[in-house]
Amino acid sequence: LINVGSVLSDRAIPIQGTYCASKHAVKGYTDALRMELEEEGAPISVTLIKPSAIDTPYIHHAKNLLPVEPLNPPPVYAPETVAEAILHCAENAVRDVIVGGGGRALTSMSYYAPRVTDKVMEATMFDLQKTDKPSAARKGDSLHAPSQDGAERGGYPGHVAESSIYTKASLRPWLVGAVVAGAGLVFAA
Pick the catalytic residue: 19, 29, 58, 112? Predict the structure, then answer.
């Protein structure tokens, strides 16, 4: 079983409190389900995929209460980075996968320096999540009127990382070990 949550289940950010709460719920449910299945002896792997900011159109379909159009905070990754992680986990039992090095940095910062992270978030995240464009009138949100456009990308105006070296490395730790060992041998020689 593969559930898709968010790095925001590990670290909440301002402006997206409701979204963060829903992702905390996904994480809690996934963790409880995993333990229940393990205790039962069920031969089922349970994975939680935790993407960083992804260039999907969810911002265009979500309810917006800001006076301006919202924006994902950088770094932003391509949807394919999440798809690759999901496919990997469909073939390999992995407990949790953070997609994107930016998400790993955020969760590590929050774990090791939570109060400093709060202050950094307070100083940066409000502005990073807002555009200069006035909020467009929407006909409800995707809860009340699901989108029919089928778009995969959200049109993020900044740089979108098409891959994540961190994610690729975390899914293949043996490869990282081999590279480090090889580099050590070259250095020793």
Answer: 19
Q: Residue 98: which of 171, 31, 32 has the closest Cα?
A: 171
pTM exceeding 0.70? yes
Q: What is the mean pLDDT of residues 133-159?
A: 75
Classify each residue of 124-145 as buried b or exposed e, where b means 16 or more C-beta atoms within 10 Å of its C-beta: eeeeebbeeeeeeeeeeeeeee
Q: How far is CA 156 from the centre of its chain?
A: 15
Query: Could you tell me where the beta strands, DSSP code E, fall in 103-155?
Result: 130-134
**Residue 176's pLDDT is what?**
67
Task: Provide the pLDDT for residue 55.
Answer: 96
Strand positions, DSSP E, 21-150? 47-51, 53-54, 68-70, 76-77, 96-99, 130-134
Q: Residue 57 and residue 67: Cα distance in Å, rounded?
A: 19
Task: Kindly tell me if the per-residue pLDDT of 147 is higher than 90.
Answer: no
Give the residue-averaged pLDDT of 19-39: 97
Catalytic residue check, 19: yes
SS3 189: coil
Sheet holding 96-99, edge to edge: 2-4, 47-51, 96-99
Query: CB 30: neighbour CB atoms within 10 A?
Result: 23
